[in-house]
């Protein structure tokens, strides 16, 4: 678990240095690890990149299920579909 936190913090800490977004969404199986995982990643990101101390990355867990991608694709297809023009 420590390696996952370290690797996630490395990636997301550097991303935060580039983007400086107000929050990053965490989706998928890692959301089951809960807020403690997000807090550990943020602390590790600051440890790896001390310049983040004044504005550490903030991670939010999504509540989307595993089918979110399929649902989103279906919604996009429905929005793009246009009925045939009347004759």
Walkthrough of the structure:
The model has no long low-confidence stretch (mean pLDDT 88). The chain has a two-stranded parallel ribbon. The chain has one domain. It is mainly alpha-helical and 87 residues long. It is built from three helices and two strands, in the order αβαβα. It is 53% helix and 7% strand. α1 (2-19) crosses α2 (34-48). The longest helix is centred in the N-terminal third of the chain and has 18 residues, at 2-19.
In brief:
With about 90 residues, this protein is mostly helical. The protein is built from three helices and two strands, in the order αβαβα.
Keywords:
elongated; mainly alpha; 2 strands; two-stranded parallel sheet
Q: How many E strands? A: 2
Most strands sheet: 2 strands, parallel
Helix content: 40-55%
Helix-strand string: HEHEH
Let me know the average pLDDT.
88
N- and C-termini, Cα separation: 62 Å
The number of distinct structural domains comes to 1
Major beta sheet, strand line-up: 1-2
Strand content: 5-15%
Question: Given the structure, what is the number of helices?
Answer: 3
Poorly predicted runs of 5 or more residues: none
The rounded Rg comes to: 18 Å
Q: Specify the structural class.
A: mainly alpha
Task: Give the CA-based shape.
Answer: elongated
Protein topology:
Blueprint: H1 2-19, E1 24-26, H2 34-48, E2 59-61, H3 68-80
Parallel strand pairs: 1-2
